[in-house]
């Protein structure tokens, strides 16, 4: 028996246990042994993470696909897991140690600290997984993986060693994003560009051979900079090759102020003649653009900062090289001064010598570490790199050829832009938590890369024996006695970038590098659902690694979803205080309501503006479904064995079979095309409008009437359509549908494993072979061209039933609309005249007179050759229906009201258009504010159009 009230929390807890106990989501179930697989790998959330709205959207969409394909008979593997999240996890544990006043990481030592991290992971690392289960994610939780599992770590080591052997991993000294607080290189994704109010300093650099004088412009060149503290590492000044002001200076030297070093003026298009003075200082060791300029012109790289962001000048051979006398004293004075304190002191010193021309306020973006909050420093250091350019070529070709496609397709351009301009990928991090780089260094710094320490020792001893650094006897002794080789070779302390292990996720989670059955069956995967912000960091790298090691693309489709913003369109952030917690919404409205909201708003290429009211609205939708199912149960509606909906005799029942088949096709095709919002919209309209508002209402007289064959058929059809609704709605709202599926018919099988109303037909061997050539064998059952019905209703259409019931619905709907427009009170009954009705209408109308009168609040329904004078005329499916309203409404008062409403709408339109026509407003206002004005204009335009239509109708009644 269905409970009176819908209580999401009770249902969700119970259904989660049912699914888990029945192994409903397990891949490779015996009943799916011969089914075609469908594989999705979850974008692994950080082990430190908590469910946020981006997770909720991403995993809801993945779950829709997985539940849909599971119901279509596929062997679904939704591979779950978490990422070790090097920096985030290390910070969490270090913060915990500090709060508990326990020894820090350095005091503990690497081994003890890592033990502590693993302990934390065991205690707290499942938080995000449990939250995903609350959302209803139907992953195969028995296969949960972690990027630092033994098997995945084995894959990481193998990939590193093989790429190094092939020359695709190497060590190099380049600029990296350096976090001076965390003391590690970080990826671009971990850098936040923050707009700050600073200054632009215009500095005079004396020209060699001329006597410097601040009053003599010919004695110096002016450079503009936001970072005067890095000028100590300048090795050049760049001007645009076509800038006439500096043509005669190109190739000459200037004297670096305060330092005295000679640096060259070079011609480079990087310098913008329209910005600043048109001349820029070049500091290759402290700016990414300058690094490239320096490479083009062979300029020296002089790093003047240390790991903590302090000036590092003493004992700095690069800095001290070729310095004139007296400069060393300056180096001593500024040595180990913090970069921002140094900036102030250096500017003061420059001003005292007349080297500062002027200082201007300047707003610009400054990179900050997203976790540490400190200003990120471009830092010249030795790091490990992947030759991404070489690996990117086949990954680019795979998307160009269509082996992998992006949805929406416009994201392919972003992918190509990034990949075709790809830089070496820095993969080393100065952390302890992560995959330690499998590289060992000999006494002379020679590197030995190997999968194990024993292998590295063997290579090293063989090498140094050959080089006669040690004797063969010493080599044999070291090989046999670990103590004797202690300190002879030392392991690289750095760990790998988290994205390195994540790049292997589609195949490492399946057991690679071992030849496991899972690798053979579930790779390549079918779809990847992810956000646009990690197309380069994750998607592109999975493409590169998958093609290189598996010789196949890792997925055939990449669906890129948009951002979830607040209801005004602003990006959610803690600083703005507009973050919406999905767990709070689940507590308040249930997981199904949140899931359906996100799916219904997930239009391709459009950000989601999430309002709590929308979630509440879809909670009401769930309640509507609940009550409809209770109504069916209370009226003893059940599907008898052998019931065939296509053989129904009653027009109303044939109509609902027709509408069900139509909706099934719409939902199926929309999910296949990743149009989640269209699929959700279609099933929503069908449940609320077609089934609840019309079918159940029109069926009530039969259900509440005397027993008859029509009543029996209607009971069966009400239950049958309800069951089809539960199937179609299950991927979107799994908890409530599974509960109703169980309690409405006490079924033995789970809805999660029930057949979808439309299922792919098994292809012939010839079709399978043909498709394997073009799209790959795992996509054989996706093509809509091969979708065939498993039930009679799937291809069922009944134009005659649709014409009759559709006419009733359209007629009642239009009458209701006019009554609302004209402010006719519900208690006031109006007459209806069917003017010049066709024979078909005259034949069907008497069957529905009582229903139409009741639902449209009519006093009478009659036929006439023409519409009476003073009647509002409605065009219903090509025929005229007239409502005589003389004496029913005050036409003059109603016209005045409509004129007033139209004037108000026009004022709203004018106000919005005035703002949108203001270029300054559009340029300076926040994106969400501009979008809000556009929405106001569109809403006012729609309101005006509706009011004008009502005014035209009113004229008919006057």
From TrEMBL:
<protein>
    <recommendedName>
        <fullName>Valine--tRNA ligase</fullName>
        <ecNumber>6.1.1.9</ecNumber>
    </recommendedName>
</protein>
<dbReference type="InterPro" id="IPR002300">
    <property type="entry name" value="aa-tRNA-synth_Ia"/>
</dbReference>
<feature type="domain" description="Valyl-tRNA synthetase tRNA-binding arm">
    <location>
        <begin position="890"/>
        <end position="955"/>
    </location>
</feature>
<comment type="function">
    <text>Catalyzes the attachment of valine to tRNA(Val). As ValRS can inadvertently accommodate and process structurally similar amino acids such as threonine, to avoid such errors, it has a 'posttransfer' editing activity that hydrolyzes mischarged Thr-tRNA(Val) in a tRNA-dependent manner.</text>
</comment>
<dbReference type="InterPro" id="IPR009008">
    <property type="entry name" value="Val/Leu/Ile-tRNA-synth_edit"/>
</dbReference>
<feature type="short sequence motif" description="'HIGH' region">
    <location>
        <begin position="45"/>
        <end position="55"/>
    </location>
</feature>
<dbReference type="InterPro" id="IPR033705">
    <property type="entry name" value="Anticodon_Ia_Val"/>
</dbReference>
<dbReference type="Pfam" id="PF00133">
    <property type="entry name" value="tRNA-synt_1"/>
</dbReference>
<keyword id="KW-0963">Cytoplasm</keyword>
<comment type="subunit">
    <text>Monomer.</text>
</comment>
<dbReference type="InterPro" id="IPR010978">
    <property type="entry name" value="tRNA-bd_arm"/>
</dbReference>
<dbReference type="InterPro" id="IPR009080">
    <property type="entry name" value="tRNAsynth_Ia_anticodon-bd"/>
</dbReference>
<keyword id="KW-0030">Aminoacyl-tRNA synthetase</keyword>
<dbReference type="Pfam" id="PF10458">
    <property type="entry name" value="Val_tRNA-synt_C"/>
</dbReference>
<keyword id="KW-0175">Coiled coil</keyword>
<dbReference type="InterPro" id="IPR002303">
    <property type="entry name" value="Valyl-tRNA_ligase"/>
</dbReference>
<feature type="domain" description="Aminoacyl-tRNA synthetase class Ia">
    <location>
        <begin position="18"/>
        <end position="610"/>
    </location>
</feature>
<dbReference type="InterPro" id="IPR001412">
    <property type="entry name" value="aa-tRNA-synth_I_CS"/>
</dbReference>
<keyword id="KW-0067">ATP-binding</keyword>
<feature type="short sequence motif" description="'KMSKS' region">
    <location>
        <begin position="571"/>
        <end position="575"/>
    </location>
</feature>
<feature type="domain" description="Methionyl/Valyl/Leucyl/Isoleucyl-tRNA synthetase anticodon-binding">
    <location>
        <begin position="653"/>
        <end position="828"/>
    </location>
</feature>
<keyword id="KW-0648">Protein biosynthesis</keyword>
<dbReference type="Pfam" id="PF08264">
    <property type="entry name" value="Anticodon_1"/>
</dbReference>
<feature type="coiled-coil region">
    <location>
        <begin position="888"/>
        <end position="957"/>
    </location>
</feature>
<keyword id="KW-0547">Nucleotide-binding</keyword>
<feature type="binding site">
    <location>
        <position position="574"/>
    </location>
    <ligand>
        <name>ATP</name>
    </ligand>
</feature>
<keyword id="KW-0436">Ligase</keyword>
<dbReference type="InterPro" id="IPR014729">
    <property type="entry name" value="Rossmann-like_a/b/a_fold"/>
</dbReference>
<dbReference type="InterPro" id="IPR037118">
    <property type="entry name" value="Val-tRNA_synth_C_sf"/>
</dbReference>
<dbReference type="GO" id="GO:0004832">
    <property type="term" value="F:valine-tRNA ligase activity"/>
</dbReference>
<dbReference type="InterPro" id="IPR013155">
    <property type="entry name" value="M/V/L/I-tRNA-synth_anticd-bd"/>
</dbReference>
<comment type="similarity">
    <text>Belongs to the class-I aminoacyl-tRNA synthetase family. ValS type 1 subfamily.</text>
</comment>
<dbReference type="InterPro" id="IPR019499">
    <property type="entry name" value="Val-tRNA_synth_tRNA-bd"/>
</dbReference>
